[in-house]
Amino acid sequence: MRAEWINPFIAATATTFEVLLECDVERGKPRLKSAVQPQFEISGLMSMQGEASGLVVVSLHRDVAVEATRFIVGHASGAIDADVVDVICEMTNMIAGGANNQLEQLSMQIGLPSVITGKNHVVNYPSGVATITIPCETKWGPFCVDASIKARPSRVLREPTASV
Length: 164
Prior knowledge:
By secondary structure, this protein is an alpha+beta fold. Helix content is 32%, strand content 30%. Strands 1, 2, 3, 4, 5, 6, 7 and 8 form an eight-stranded antiparallel beta sheet that branches.
């Protein structure tokens, strides 16, 4: 996995928090992830295709998702409800859009983002490649960015065989 594939998502996530939510993000040290469950209760998923393919997941602690909703909508129930899912879906769209601007230069495109919720929800990370998690901290609590991206298998060009 190359940094140029992950960095656009990290930068777009920080920008989305800082511009949309007026909330600074402190990034922690990346590490390998072994679990198939995202760390927190609500996750925005972004798949990608092209020169590389994979999945990037922004997983947010419930408090972060609820406070983001309160900031944008003006109210929040304290639970992960339809308003919270809508806000996280919009944030995931913004992150995907910001990352896509940089990834197009690398012949890669991001698919339609989605959101999943629930304690211990499972994400089907691509097989055959490690998943890296980057922990982040905000004034509202933690979230993380998980990335599992692998290069597209190279195509082997064969020389045409001559018939005798």
